[in-house]
Write a structure and sequence with these properties.
Elements: H1 6-9, H2 19-53, E1 59-63, E2 68-74, E3 78-84, E4 87-92, E5 96-102
Antiparallel strand pairs: 1-2, 1-5, 2-3, 3-4
């Protein structure tokens, strides 16, 4: 006769199973979600936030809408982006998708 550990199949004879063993799969799922989904997403958001905060004059930027331009002025929550000749657009910093160095 095969003998299985109680925490896998329950206690024989109607005894109560270990409550810790019942929550173990739930805890393991949470740990997997944290390390494979939550933690990388948080790191990516922190990197993006630091990139947007470090934007400065003459940086090349691309917005989430696909507008390419050069930063001509930086304010508290927005930037003035020169897109062509004398055309300038005021864009929120949160709308920037990438920032590269000077031209």
């Amino acid at each position: 006769m095969l003998s299985y550990p109680y925490f896998l199949v329950g206690a024989p004879g109607g005894e109560q199973a270990n409550p810790l063993a019942m929550f173990l799969p739930l805890v393991l799922i949470f740990i997997v979600f944290y390390f494979f989904i939550i933690r990388p997403q948080k790191k990516k958001e922190d990197d993006r936030k630091s990139m947007v905060e470090a934007v400065k004059k003459n940086d090349r930027v691309v917005t989430i809408g696909g507008i390419h331009g050069t930063v001509s002025q930086v304010d508290e929550s927005s930037v003035l982006v020169q897109v062509d000749g004398a055309t300038k657009l005021r864009i929120e910093k949160s709308a920037l998708s990438s920032v590269s160095g000077k031209e």
